[in-house]
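agent> Task received from the user: take the single chain below, predict its 3D structure, and emit structure tokens. No templates, no multimer pairing.
agent> Plan: (1) validate residues, (2) run structure prediction, (3) serialize to tokens, (4) report one or two observations.
agent> Step 1 OK, no nonstandard residues flagged.
tool_call: predict_structure(input=
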Amino acid sequence: MRSTLVLMLLLLGCDGQNDLLGSTDLRIDGAPAGEGDPESEDPRMCVTETGEIHVVWVDDRDGTAAVWFTSSTNGGTTWLRPPIRVNRGGGAAFAPDISCSNAVVHVAWEDDRDGELENHNIFYNRSGDGGVTWNDVDRRLTEDVDGESMSLGPDLVAVGDDLYVAWFDNVNGAYDIYITASHDRGQTWSVPLRLDSDDAGQAYSAWPRIAADSTQHVYVVWEDSRGGMSDIYAAASSTGGANFWPEVRIDGGDALGQHDSFSPRLDTDEDGSVYVVWHDTRNGTQRDIYMNWSINHGQNWATDAARVDSDAAGFFDSLNPDVLVVDGTTYVAWQDARAGGYDVFVRSAESGVFYEAEQRADTDAAGRGNSLHPQVLRNGDTVVVIWEDRRDDDGGEGYNDVYYNYSLDAGTTWSSRDLRVDSIAAGTSYAVDIQAALYRDPEGGVVTLHAVWTDGRRGTADIYSQTLPVGEEASFTVE
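)
tool_result: status=success, residues=479
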């Protein structure tokens, strides 16, 4: 079903959040329109089991960069206004992450309030009432009281009452990987634990990604240059982060530190399987997508990583993979330049084995316009891949739109036509930092796609949201 959107201000309301650019996507950052409109960027989103949508981002509407929060309790139709400031300190805030579990909303971010060097520490706050109220005092998760080192890239996950935050930190010299845990909904936290076991501060270890399950198994992957060039390492815990098995290099099949492996992503299933993907230069100057997996909670991994893209090895750039594991099936999506410009491909595996070739998700002419930064989602048998798409950037301005494709049979077949998510005239602005989730209505069974992103249609960066039943798209019609 294709919805037709009409350019009528009366249909949009007069709250200053939408104007003659009109559409069904909504500006949700609640900042003043016109003069004084701040740059609102870096959104992150979580969706609860009952369908509430919670979003954080960063902007400086009050003069200092801060973490702001809004939420919707009716599936994205209306949003909390005005938004609420999360961080309580006087410093600038950066790089927020959000997770929600058991009706509690958790947020972690970088913050430079400590010391005079403007170094960042990792801070945390929580709300037990859907974001309406927050703790009066933020919790610093790092131990650098005087702000003498830099802590970056917090990645936060909440499962039940358990929370885990990982980041990279140069307290020892070069960056190392740290993690802390809470098992009482964020009220108390463990002493940060270093995960990379080479000499502290001797090699660059960065950009950790974290996953966990309901039995206190925790998994962290990161980039690590201890061998020379960047490799991918993984560490796992069966004790809720109290201790970890020794970390393992998982980009096997080439020599240690001889080729760069970057941008790891991971996911886990309740059966103890863990899958990690990344892009890798081992086959030549252009990158390929690789995957490794464990079937016993991260204790053991395959000796050699498996290549995911099946075109000529090392001849065409394949980048920015995402991975999802559901009920024993692993889905990998990535951007791929085999046809010239980047297209989005998706491939599924069973127990680490790819039985079928990858399928292209974007349905314009192959290689026509760059399709970038895909994410893969699943709810029941509905699978969605969503991405940034520049097919209508005729002037080469770097403008893009948001597109998705979907499967209703767990990824066996896909729609013959991809669908628009943002609803302005195509190729007239940029839409980046896409965050997406699927939610199934427990009564009607309808699966809905929720998406938020940073959008430049007004000349400054704003936060926009769209909600679509899977199979429908947004469009823009001028009458």
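agent> Step 4: summary for the user.
The longest strand covers residues 329-339.
agent> Done.
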